[in-house]
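Obj.: predict assembly geometry.
Materials: sequence records (below).
Method: joint structure prediction, all chains together.
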Amino acid sequence: MRWGQRLETSRVGQVLLSVAMLVVIACLVLWNLPAGRPHDAVRPLVAPVVQGLGLEQDWALFAPDPRAFSVGLSAAITFSDGHVEHWEPPHNGLVVSPYRTYRWQKYVERARADDYRLLWEQTAQWVAREHEPGVVKVVLTRTFRNVLRPGDPGPRPTAGTFDYYTLELP
Amino acid sequence: MIGRWRRWAFDPIDTAPMAALRIACAVLVLGWAVSLLPDAQAFLADDGLTSHPVGGSTGWWTITGLPAYGAVLALIGFALALLVGWHTRIAALVVAILLIALQRRNVYVLNSGDLLLRSLAIFVALMPAGECWSLDARRRGSSAVRAPWGLRLLQVQVSLLYLFSVVAKLGGRSWQDGSAVGQALQLEDLQRLEVPLAIATSLTVSALLTYGTLVVEGFLIVGLWLPKTRWWAMAAGVLIHLGIEATLLIGWFSLAIIACYLAFVPADVLRRIVSRARPVRDQDGPARMDAPHLI
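Observations (raw structure tokens):
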């Protein structure tokens, strides 16, 4: 009989495993509590267990409401000779590529947002490195387009485009 | 009460569902890792999009200095070992640890599917997942029945996922007025198969899909546990997740959650499927006939 089997068949082992199971289940329940005062109060208490085990999670899928606008990000790269190239992250796809491009979609969702300003310069720097040599300027542009509210008639809103970060290189 | 808990968590059951979860988890991790290879430098390297891991709070850990491609290739290697059940427990543990470390290297590219795949790998590492349909079982013999406490944790995780998904949705106005799914289907950056605007903006269609999602997710919280409703719940869950998979860019979420349903499939069903697919005799042998059934 292997050690795992010995543990789960012995009385002491079952008690220990039961305590561990109950702690994990309780921590997962408390970690997942919806945003609010109880959530804020218990998160620090259960974080050592949940994050220690690698079980941090968020099941608020498209909740409390799906985003009300589509997002996009692109970059204009200016070279020392004056020519300009455009870069867009890999996006969408139909069969195989969606299992890759969703990561870029998530990154774009964050790297274009005001809450993630720390990513702006890093993104521009990376784009510059990817297009070396001769890059003198990278301009990040974000796009958005509001979705229509189901049931509301009307033409599809036009997309808005804004330059939101410029990196000048020596 | 204590007796019921003990029976639920520790009465030995056929290990086939745990082996099936191991195989499904390994296949998904392989796909996940291979799909990461083209972007390993951008997402994982120190000269990539983020120069260092960004952490959570207490208890959060990661492995720094992992070579981007090396770590992904190592994950592929250990996932292959997990797939065939070679040194299963070690392979499962390393897969779980590498998944955690790689995902924490760049949290800005993660979605719920990544976190679910990670949870699946962690719980599989706690199961005796190599007792059946594995090289380990052929090499050293197998225990046809084992305590299912690791499997129970995964089952609870699945129910909690649906419970808190429904709770979060019920707090949103668009889920209450029926516009949520129509709104989500219009998000161009999330589109896989483009749904015509006329359909996505139809309140009737949107309300049907929005309330249908809430009903199915609510049903899945308990429906998967009850023998009488289990198959209906799984069918509804698979249908809804394949629908989401076809239309939205959600990475590995749908496949991972459908894989998790294997935790609720009775062992005799899995063995029947495998024996039909494999004409030669199942060399791991059938489960003991008097083995208690799952759940």
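Conclusions so far: Chain B touches chain A through 90 residues (CB under 8 Å).
To do: check interface contacts against the pulldown list.
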